[in-house]
Each structure stands twice: as C-alpha cells, then as structure tokens.
Amino acid sequence: MPSKRYKKLPEKTRDLKTETVDKIIPILKQNCTTKFDESLDLSLQINNKQKKNEINIRTVINLPGGSSKKVKIGVVCEENKFQEAKDAGAEVVGGDELIEEIKSGNIRFEKLICTPSMMIKLSKLGKVLGPKGLMPNPKLGSVTNDVKKAVSDAKSGQVEIRNDKDGNIGVSIGNKSFADDKLIMNFTAIMDALEKEKSNNTIKGDLIKQAFITSTMGVSYKIKLDKSI
C-alpha cells in the first residue's frame, strides 16, 4: 500500500507536457521529501529504428558538477606504483597477489584500474571480471601507466555510460543537495558525450528516442530533448 508521502506525489507525469531539464529539476527537488539526499537519475531509451544489438555505447565522462557517489577503487600495478595509487585514494592496491585474490572471487572494489604491463596477466580473468563490468579497458582510461590520474578521475565525479541489451541507458546526474546549475551541467555533459558516441557508432537519425528523469523515491518526468541526439 502506498505511503502517505508517496500519495502526495504527482500522478500521471508522463501525460504532462514535456519540459527541458532546467524546468523539471526544481519540480523534482520539491518531490524529494525523504530524510536522505535522494539521487536524480536519467533513464534514456535508444530509438527503436536502431538495431539495438548492434549499438555498443560505453564511455566514461567526468561530470563537471561533480558526483556524490563514493567508489571503492582497486589498482593492479607494479610494486613501484603502489604508493602512488594509495596516495591518489585507491583503497585496494596490489600486484600478483591481488590478481590471485580476484581469481579466487575475492573482489573488494567497485572499479578496477590496471597498468598495461599487468593487464596481460589480468586479462586471463575475463570470466570473473567481465560479467561484473569490472574488466579494465583502455578506451575507458582504466588501463594506463598514469595511475594517479586514473584514480583521481574515478574519485572526482567520473561516471560510466553504457547501454544494456534492450537499448536502455541509466545514469545519475547528482543528488537533491546539488545546486541546479551543477545538475544541469552534468546533464549537458552526458548528452554531449552521447552525441559524440552517436558519431563514433555512425548512427543515422536520432540516437535517443525518449529521456526520463526521476528522484530515488519520486516519480518520473519526460524530458524535452534536442533532436540532434
């Protein structure tokens, strides 16, 4: 049975006139009536005209307005880079012994960074890391010798954008406590990244069919999109 708080939320928001994100954000914040700092999340649907199983969108961007998500970072690297990784904020750092831990299923991180020379050994653990989306990828900046930058980026508001097999993309633009302009900056950065991915995938027409935004415990609103994406 819906709570009293939920009953006070608007109904049938999809029937409302679509608005730009800058007009929806203040409304979303008004709906955030829980005691915790609710997340504001985007849900994007790839255009039905596209062959979803042929579209592979996977990229990372640094949100200019920051991110409230705390990510536990693991780094597989040479011993002479251990301290560099720790100083940058990595919680789990190691070499061959960490690879053995991962092989046994002991995964103590939410994102993994690896140096190129150690990647040769780590690549054999695709069956362990792949299904969890944890395998480092040069395209995503997680296979690099610049461990300090990779860890710092991951800690300071970097998010991954990827579509699932049904053509859906989900990503947070921040929390209720964020200033409106910061949330709008993050939204714009995400849409700009998708425009770039559209070009990289040689997609004709619109990439995104529909976009919705909601808060953790709120209701969903449809966003008016720039049809160039």
Could you explain how this protein is built, in words?
The chain has helices at residues 4-7, 21-31, 82-88, 96-103, 116-122, 126-129, 147-155, 180-200; strands at residues 39-46, 58-62, 73-76, 92-94, 111-114, 158-162, 168-175, 208-215, 221-222. It has two domains: 17-67 and 158-222, Ribulose 1,5 Bisphosphate Carboxylase/Oxygenase; 73-155, Rossmann fold, CATH 3.40.50. 31% of the residues lie in helices and 21% in strands. α2 (21-31) packs across α8 (180-200) and α3 runs parallel beside α7 (147-155). It has 229 residues and is of the alpha/beta class. The longest helix has 21 residues, at 180-200. The radius of gyration is 20 Å and the shape is globular. α3 (82-88) links the parallel β3 and β4 (92-94). The strands form three sheets. A four-stranded antiparallel sheet has the order 7-1-8-9, with helices on one face.
Would you summarize the structure shown here?
By secondary structure, this protein is α/β, with parallel strands linked by helices. It has helices at 4-7, 21-31, 82-88, 96-103, 116-122, 126-129, 147-155, 180-200, and strands at 39-46, 58-62, 73-76, 92-94, 111-114, 158-162, 168-175, 208-215, 221-222.
